[in-house]
C-alpha cells in the first residue's frame, strides 16, 4: 500500500486510482458526485489493508466512521456472552459498513472481521464534518445521500415491524 | 504449555524491544537537543501559527475560495505581520529598553537612591544599610533590563532568520491532512481508529486552546492600551510607548498568575522614569487599570474564549515557567504555559482513548473466529 507521504502523484498507478474512484462511485453515499467532487473525497479517505481474521471494528468501541471494501470480504458479527457469536452479514467488494458512525460517536453495535486479506477504505466523521464546513455544497450532497439511505433503512425496518405485528396478531387470534 | 511459554517469550521480547527503542529515542533527544534546539523552536512556532491560521484558511475556503488561494492570502498576511513586527516594533522596543537602562544608570536612579537612603537614615539610623540596599536594587534593575534588552535583541535576530517560519507554516497548513494521513498510515490496524480519533480530538482541542489564548492576549492587550491611553489623556502623557507596553501586557497574559504582574511592571517603571508631577496618583491609576483589565479578563473574556479543561494549578504554572526559562530563556517562559496546556489536553485525550477502546482485548473477536475456523 502506497504511503501518502512518500507516494508520488505523477507516478501513481493509474489503475489503482481508477479502482478507488470506481469503488467510491459504487457507494450510494457518493454515487451522485461528479469526478471533481469524488477527487475531494478521495483526498480524505484512508486506505488500509487487513489480513484474514483481523478485526476491523470492535463492538462497543466509539464509532468514528464508515468503511468501504475495495476488494476482499468482511463478516459483520454480533457477540453475546449468552448466545455466542452471530453473523449479521457477509460483505464483499464495493459494500460498506459502519455508516451510522458518520453521524454520532455512539458505540459500535457489531464487530467486523476480514474473512480474507482485504483492502478497505475508511471515511471518518471528523473529516466529513470538516468537508461539510469547507465545501458546503459537496458536504450537503453526501449528507443528503446518507439521510436517504438511513430513511430507506428506517422504512424497511417499519415494514418488518408491521409484518411481525401482523403475524403476532394472527397467532393471538388463533 | 509450550505454546503458552512461546507466547510469553514473544511478549517479553516485544516489551524488551519497545523499552530499548524508547531508551534510544530519549538518549538521542538528550544528545541532539542542543544542536536541534533552534530548529525545534522554529517548528513549534510555525506549528502554533498554522494552528492559529488554519481556521482562517478554512473560512476563506468555506466562502468559496480555492484552498491554494486561501493559503496564499493567509501567507501574504503572515509576511505582512512578520514584516510589520520586524520593521516597526522590534527596533523600537530595543531602543526603549536601551533608553530605560541609560536613564536608570543616570539621574533618576540617583534620585531614588537618595530618597531610599534618607528614608533608612531617618527610620533605622543606618546609612550603610541604606547604601547596600540601593546598590543591590540598582544592580538588580540593570541586570533585569539588560536581560530584557537581550531578549528583544534575540527576538530580533530570531525574526531576521525567521523568513523560513512562514514557509514552514505554509506547508503545515497546506499539507496538514497529508501529514496526518502519512502518520496514521504507519499505525498498526489494531490502533488505527484509536489513533485517528485521538489525533482528531487533540487537533480540535489544541486548536481551540491556541485560538482562545491568542484571542485572550489580543483583547487584554487592547484593553491595556486603552487604559494607559486614558491615563495619558488625563495626566498629560506620563506613559510614553503605551502601545508597546499594552502589547507586552497582552503577551505576558499568556502566563497565568504571574503574567498580569509582568504586564504592569513596565508601565510602572516607565512612569517612574518619566517622573511626572503627580507620580503617586499616576502609579495608582496604572495599578487600577491593570486590576480592572484582569477583572474583565477573568470574569468575561477567559471563560468565553479559553477552554476550562486547560485550567492549571499555580504550582504547575510555576514549574512550567521555570523549566521554560531554563530551556529557551524569556521566549521559553512565555510559551511554557501554552505548551503545558497542549500537553495536558493531549494526555487527557490519550487517557480517554485508552479507557474507551478495547485495547486489552485487541483481537478478541478475530481470535474467536480463527479458532472456530480451525475447528
Instruction: Report helical residue fraction of chain A.
Output: 40-55%
Number of domains of chain A: 1
Count of folded domains of chain B:
2
How many H/I helical runs of chain B? Answer: 12
User: Which strand order does the major sheet of chain A show?
Assistant: 1-8-3-6
Distance between the termini of chain B: 20 Å
Structure characterization notes:
The complex is a heterodimer of chains A (174) and B (375). Chain A contains four helices and eight strands; from the N terminus they run ααββββββββαα. Chain A has helices spanning 14-26, 35-44, 125-134, 136-173, and strands at residues 46-50, 55-57, 65-71, 74-80, 84-91, 96-97, 111-114, 118-124. Chain A has one domain: Jelly Rolls. In chain B, 87% of the residues lie in helices and 0% in strands. Chain B has twelve helices and no strands. In chain B, helix 2 (67-105) packs antiparallel against helix 5. Chain B is globular and about 90 Å long. The interface between A and B is large, with 37 and 35 residues. Chain A: This is Cyclic nucleotide-binding domain-containing protein. Chain A: InterPro entries: cAMP-dep_PK_reg_su-like, cNMP-bd_dom, cNMP-bd_dom_sf, RmlC-like_jellyroll. Chain A: Pfam families: cNMP_binding.
Looking at this protein, list some descriptive labels.
heterodimer; A: 174 residues; alpha+beta; Jelly Rolls; 4-stranded antiparallel sheet; 25% strand; disordered N terminus; B: 375 residues; mainly alpha; 87% helix; globular; disordered C terminus; transmembrane (chain B); AI-2E family transporter (chain B); membrane (chain B); cell membrane (chain B)
Summary, kept brief:
Chain A is an alpha+beta fold. Chain A contains 4 helices and 8 strands, in the order H-H-E-E-E-E-E-E-E-E-H-H.
Helix/strand layout:
The complex is a heterodimer of chains A (174) and B (375).
Chain A: H1 14-26, H2 35-44, E1 46-50, E2 55-57, E3 65-71, E4 74-80, E5 84-91, E6 96-97, E7 111-114, E8 118-124, H3 125-134, H4 136-173
Antiparallel strand pairs in A: 1-8, 2-7, 3-6, 3-8, 4-5, 4-7
Chain B: H1 2-62, H2 67-105, H3 107-124, H4 127-160, H5 164-174, H6 176-185, H7 189-234, H8 242-252, H9 259-274, H10 279-305, H11 314-356, H12 364-374
